[in-house]
Amino acid sequence: MKTTLLALVFALGVRGDDADVDYAQFVNPFIGSEGAIAGYAYGGGDIFVGGAVPFGMVKLGLDTYELPVNQSALNGGWTPQGRVTGISLMHESGTGGGPKYGFPSQMPLVTIDSPVNLLDNLTYWQKRVGQDSARVGYFKTRLESGITVELSASRHAGLHQYTYPSPSEKHILVDFSHYLPHPTRSWDSQFYTGGEIEVQPNSSTYTGYTSIANGWCLGPPVTVYVCGEFNSPPDQARAFKGKNTFPVGRHFRSFDNATTPEPTFTGTNARSGPVADRVGAIFSWNDTNNSTTIRSRVGISFMSVEKACAYKNEELSWSIEDTAAAARAEWNRDVFSKIRVDTSQKANKTRLALLYSSLYFMHLIPSERVGENPLWESDEPYWDDFYTMWDLFRNQVSLWHLIQPSYYESMIRSLIDMFKHEGFLPDGRSGNYNGLVQGGSNADNVLADAFVKGLRGAINWTEGYAAVKKNAEVLPFFDQNPVDPQGSLKEGRSALDDWIPLGYVSADRNSRAVSKTVEYSLNDFAVSQIAAGISPGDRDLYLQRSSGWQRSWDTSATARNFSGFVMPRFANGTFHKTYNITNCGDCNWSDESYEGTAFEYSFVIPHDIERMIELMGGTAHFEQRLDYVFQPNTSGVDLGVNGLGITTINNVANEPDFQTPYLYNYLNKQWKSVERSRQLATDFYFNASNGIPGNSDAGALNCWLVWQMLGLYPVVTTPVYLLESPWFDDINVTVNHDKTLRIRALGLDDGDARQGFYVQNVSINGQTWNRNWFEHEDVMVDGGEIIFGLGSEKRVWETGHVPPSPGHSVVDVGDS
Ligand SMILES: *[C@@H]1O[C@H](CO)[C@@H](O)[C@H](O)[C@H]1NC(C)=O
Ligand SMILES: *[C@@H]1O[C@H](CO)[C@@H](O)[C@H](O)[C@H]1NC(C)=O
Ligand SMILES: *[C@@H]1O[C@H](CO)[C@@H](O)[C@H](O)[C@H]1NC(C)=O
Ligand SMILES: *[C@@H]1O[C@H](CO)[C@@H](O)[C@H](O)[C@H]1NC(C)=O
Ligand SMILES: *[C@@H]1O[C@H](CO)[C@@H](O)[C@H](O)[C@H]1NC(C)=O
Ligand SMILES: *[C@@H]1O[C@H](CO)[C@@H](O)[C@H](O)[C@H]1NC(C)=O
Ligand SMILES: *[C@@H]1O[C@H](CO)[C@@H](O)[C@H](O)[C@H]1NC(C)=O
Ligand SMILES: *[C@@H]1O[C@H](CO)[C@@H](O)[C@H](O)[C@H]1NC(C)=O
Ligand SMILES: *[C@@H]1O[C@H](CO)[C@@H](O)[C@H](O)[C@H]1NC(C)=O
Ligand SMILES: *[C@@H]1O[C@H](CO)[C@@H](O)[C@H](O)[C@H]1NC(C)=O
Ligand SMILES: *[C@@H]1O[C@H](CO)[C@@H](O)[C@H](O)[C@H]1NC(C)=O
Ligand SMILES: *[C@@H]1O[C@H](CO)[C@@H](O)[C@H](O)[C@H]1NC(C)=O
């Protein structure tokens, strides 16, 4: 684009106006809060609902316990009908593994008389009355006790506002032994390992810490320092302790679980001591006659009580309105205004809700914890809650790269710093601990994607390369996770001892051989991409290893009249011939393929689609096979929570299949990619509580939808973007800090099921474009303009080269 100066002037002028647009009004913070069974969380998004800023360390929301447990999911804390057990500051969003966090908490009560037992949530938990309401940065509910709870948050602190009924007693329970439990199993449930609480002399302030261990990645105790304050001094403040009888974490349990313990009041402070006694405090106000609003500001820190207090004091006033307004302004400024579409009266409000809600949910985790690393001293930034790279690498990091370049650079520096101090990049990380690795070491893909698109800043790529090279070369220490006796789930690649000598992951020596082979292939391609710039002599080695999936390709494997699949292969070279290509069983840790069948994984070779097409018998056979996976009632698996309602082999609700609908671009039949992917988006995404088809996975599903609406799809680990078809006629995206990519869709006419969304022609920066893809430099560095001419004709408009296969190689699999 040569008219940069003019464009910049324009952009600045328009930005001034757009800064005032309140995009947050379009966000529906409940999308994904419910699953297919109305009124229950099961199979839904597992999203967080509450007050938070983008990537905030604090995500303040309800913790609930929903029954029956087989229709529940406590991961985000909030459930549609669960009883409130506490209100806590730390949460994940969208995660499908074991719950994590749900601490430190408060709980407002109108009585503490028997049968209420402060150590037994079942005696005081609360149903809610009416509908909860939530807006960006703000949450409100009413408990059956009559207490109205309003919540908002800053980056490291939360503001609780409790309005008590009149007349009523007024108490607030601070329970440092509260956390989100796993309702059905103990091995990866969190458990409490101790804490300490101290009520300050004026009784308005309490300080201390709580430590909660285990949970999803089986991490060590997470210690959080707490500093809470009430706006009106309580008349009574009593610390208490009690025996730890939680059924999980029995090594720390100080008593058997035969009796429910009662609290012992201990004055102004309570300490767990060596056997992890439970500690907390109860604050009471004597004015029972009048309706009273009590507010509480709570700061947290992983470093010290002093920091927790400083956050509370510096980040929060006592005004819930001001706090919510500040959070909302931050979301508008730093997230929503990065993608600007027409929001006037004539705009389609459903689409605005889908777009801005999707952006919201993809900015809740990871958690930005700069200055909050309790593990080592470093000048590098620190982040946590990468839950998980397996979800994020597919396309979410690529969108952060464009619209959050500062945060994204910070994340990458933090990942590399983890490698430097702990030895490995995380594939997942939460509670300051690496894990769980689902397949490959997918941080490799993340780093490569950033590297090839030119992200530099203060990232030390020498170290970045050393980090991915270690993943490629060094077998990680075996962490003895009970679900996988074969290798580490903590970090790295547990099957390198197969992968390096054999060139594939064998099915007899390793779990998840099919999916690991596919993932390791892309991982090594990613390593080769960084090697090309940092250590060119290594490039070919990793490029050669990235063809491992071909060594696991069984040309004679047949299913549904198609031949040739990535199959489980034994160390002796033979294939597992009776393996069921359309059914991976539980598709879990100990199976031969993880969360996807061999049928699906055979399409997941983004770096060498060219060879994949050859191995599937050439373009005609490939197209037939691709058509087939979108036909209803073809799936052979019960997808469970990873794809409720989906009956096709392609499971757009789960990450491995995210790119598959777009593969028609590689046949120069882009119109079919557009048709398929739009169909999937309109069939499975809605502005409704059950509006996403499964766990949102840290926002990965939401981000898939954002790309769909932009009319683009990034090919991860490469600088290539596929051209699809936008859902808005004019979109301005702020890329590379302050540049503008404008995407226009002339002739878009797709309302009320009309079909005017097929691409007729494309121009980029004023030039007619004959390829259905472009590269990062074309419009993402200096900005630029993509103009789609749309219409209802299913047109093969592209005459140029198909998208590249930069990892192309040919291993003889006996196919020719
Ligand atoms: C949960 O269990 C109840 C019986 O306790 C059953 O009626 C219900 O269908 C189950 N729900 C799911 C999602 O399996
Ligand atoms: C509440 O009590 C039940 C029963 O003791 C327990 O299973 C659960 O972990 C407790 N805590 C929460 C936050 O639900
Ligand atoms: C109570 O004491 C703390 C310091 O310990 C102080 O920060 C706070 O402002 C005091 N609150 C009131 C209401 O005096
Ligand atoms: C508040 O009530 C408690 C318990 O009844 C009593 O001990 C205390 O003196 C009261 N405080 C005030 C300021 O009235
Ligand atoms: C204590 O908890 C364990 C584990 O949940 C359970 O197996 C055992 O029956 C419980 N004991 C009693 C006395 O409730
Ligand atoms: C209750 O409110 C009334 C009217 O505002 C006031 O006169 C009274 O002092 C209040 N009572 C208490 C206990 O604060
Ligand atoms: C509440 O109101 C009753 C009746 O008016 C009065 O006797 C009592 O002292 C009041 N309590 C407080 C704490 O103000
Ligand atoms: C996008 O930016 C252009 C150029 O500044 C402006 O004319 C147009 O109105 C903007 N469109 C939207 C939807 O913001
Ligand atoms: C990058 O890291 C390497 C290895 O730790 C170090 O030698 C080098 O000085 C670093 N580069 C910069 C610019 O800090
Ligand atoms: C190869 O290994 C598999 C799995 O251990 C075994 O079932 C098969 O018999 C072996 N085949 C040959 C030819 O050794
Ligand atoms: C594979 O699983 C599908 C779905 O469960 C089943 O219908 C089919 O019979 C199985 N195929 C073989 C070869 O076992
Ligand atoms: C608005 O967008 C939704 C979602 O894409 C679509 O279903 C609906 O038809 C659109 N409405 C109009 C009037 O264009």
Automatic annotation (TrEMBL):
Superkingdom of this protein's organism: Eukaryota
Signal peptide: 1-19
Glycosyl hydrolase family 92 N-terminal domain location: 26-301
Keyword line: Signal
Gene3D superfamilies named in the record: 2.70.98.10, alpha-1,2-mannosidase, alpha-1,2-mannosidases domains, GH92 mannosidase domain
Domain Glycosyl hydrolase family per the UniProt entry, residue ranges: 307-791
Family annotation (InterPro entries): GH-type_carb-bd (IPR014718), GH92_a_mannosidase_put (IPR005887), GH92_N (IPR041371), Glyco_hydro_92 (IPR012939), PNGase (IPR050883)
Example of a GO MF term: carbohydrate binding
One Pfam family, short name: Glyco_hydro_92N
Keyword tRNA processing: no
GO biological process assignments: glycoprotein catabolic process
GO cellular component, one term: nucleus
PANTHER family, sorted: ALPHA-1,2-MANNOSIDASE FAMILY PROTEIN (AFU_ORTHOLOGUE AFUA_5G10520), PEPTIDE N-GLYCANASE PNGASE -RELATED
Protein name: Glycoside hydrolase family 92 protein
